Amino acid sequence: MRADDIHGKFLLKSPFDEISLILRLVLRYFPISNSALTNKVSKMPRPLHRGVSGIRVSGNNNDFWDSQVKDKTEKVIVNENGFASDPLSVGSPRSRHRLTMLCLKLSVVVIVILALTGSFWWAISISTSSRGHIFRGYRRLQEQLVSDLWDIGELSLGPSRLKEIEFCPEESENYIPCFNVSENLALGYSDGNEYDRLCGHGSRQNCLVLPPVNYKIPLRWPTGRDVIWVANVKITGQEVFSSGSFTKRMMMLEEEQISFRSASLMFDGVEDYSHQIAEMIGLRNESNFIQAGIRTILDIGCGYGSFGAHLFSKQLLTMCIANYESSGSQVQLTLERGLPAMIGSFNSKQLPYPSLSFDMLHCARCGIDWDEKDGIFLIEADRVLKPGGYFVWTSPLTNVHAFLRNKEMQKRWNTVRDFAENICWELISQQDETVVWKKTTKKSCYNSRKPGSGPSVCSKGQDVESPYYRPLQNCIGGTNSRRWVPIEERVTWPSRSNLNKNELALYGLHPEELNEDTAHYKTTVRNYWSLLSPLIFSDHPKRPGDEDPSPPHNMLRNVLDMNARYGGFNAALLEAGKSAWVMNVVPTSGPNYLPLILDRGYVGVLHNWCEAFPSYPRTYDMVHAEGLLSLETDQHHRCTMLDLFTEIDRLLRPEGWVIIHDMAPLIKKARALTVQLKWDARVIEVESNSDERLLICQKPFFKKQATS
User: What stretches pass through the bilayer (predicted)?
Assistant: First the structure.
């Protein structure tokens, strides 16, 4: 029976019944030996702090907390009848100690009885007018008392209730459920489909993924955006300099680091390249992208994120997507730099983004053959591109001088160019290997095409605004959406994040709802920073008599918001001057406001939290979830809370933070799981009269021993 069951079953009865209940709890749990109780209490989590970097585990069976306390064992003598007897006599010091403890226990029981009896007679003697108010406070004290006794009882039940989760095998240090190429090949998937996401019942394993042997905490931004530790990612020197996207090669491999600094002559090519694209659109330079209505960019096959890293300083937000790669992953390295990225594939399924999501799509030698499969990849690119948005393609196929000497290349280029025209894209510029198209802003263009000259427009039944890994569709989507608004007609960034009344009506929202959400998260972010201030290491140590230093604005590079709702947490972080970007996740089990989030100029994705998130381990500095536990509980336990928390642990980097805001009973269950996950955790009351709680956790840095 759980503690909350006890509350509902017993607390509404008389104080005499409550006394009986408490006596039963005390007598049930207190007779345990003092050494056992001391041992269990000593294994409770330590106070939160940053930098548990010296913890080492050599295998999957080592108990971290057992290294903190060593149990003192008692010798047991078995008599001739086969029963254990105490080796000490009745008059021994141990016997006197047990007698003393028994007296103390009885004293506690007497005190509890007297306190409850006195409070009962006092309660019935007060005036009727104030009795209701005092009873509510009295009941809260009763609930807290029973809860505390229950916690003591849980500790006495031994380690079976709080069994810590084991560490995953060494080969799982870059483990991503749902992406298993060898298994997909065995199931008959081929032609690129073996890299697709496939979430079966056996795709998840409840174990803790350890970092690589020489893993180091990433450098703080902005330094960490340009320099990463080689040991933190799975890549070889050959892969660093291998062919592929030209942005892959814009780095320098040093002894322990990979550098993407602009001091590199190759990196200067990104600035020149971005400048070239801006001029092809008709702008002075890339700093004018925002004035042209461009804020969010989908970078397909992003290399290692150098294009997005450069544009980040221009207030442009670039989401990198690329296929799953077991080594030398574009997504893993981009995320290690702290930049937005996730695993995504055009092979067979639609991307988990709504129609009309991005202002620009970019593909620089991204490895996608746009001329294949009857143009179905271009149709999907068109679906997620906003009206008036730009498609930028850099490829040897677009080089006029090259395909004049190669008839096959010329044929492929003509196929892509003609198909783009048939889906109402205007070719506005072509220079060297780069081509820029602009998507039409007028729906009438599709009806004015010659019959049979291109894919048809999706019907209302086919045109799903927010598909979730649905098979690719061979029809033009997004035309039935109420959000068909050209990027030139939208308010530019940052005003774009504050939608007006008419714009909110497109999502079925009133201004009051968004204003309330905004005000709530402004307070929330301020409170979070206040709570984390004394817990986070700062470069400016506290002096005697000074207050705890505030955490630096750049302590976080990225945040995973697991239940983003309207994107209010993202908006509050930006308004507070924090440098972090937020991956806004909208659960498939709740209301879908992902179109609103993307139209506000943020990045996000639709996701089912009973499945693994399409990202590599150790990629987020903070995980935030408000109301997610309540939301998932309402779905009749599609998956367990343990499944959810082991996935959080996989995504969170060592020394990263978890903040969960939910109802008190759910937070209590979550708090118990943190012991199994070896997290440092504490529960904080939101308001004195609220049934909500905050659970703030930090993931320790467990170092794996190098094997000889």
Answer: 102-124
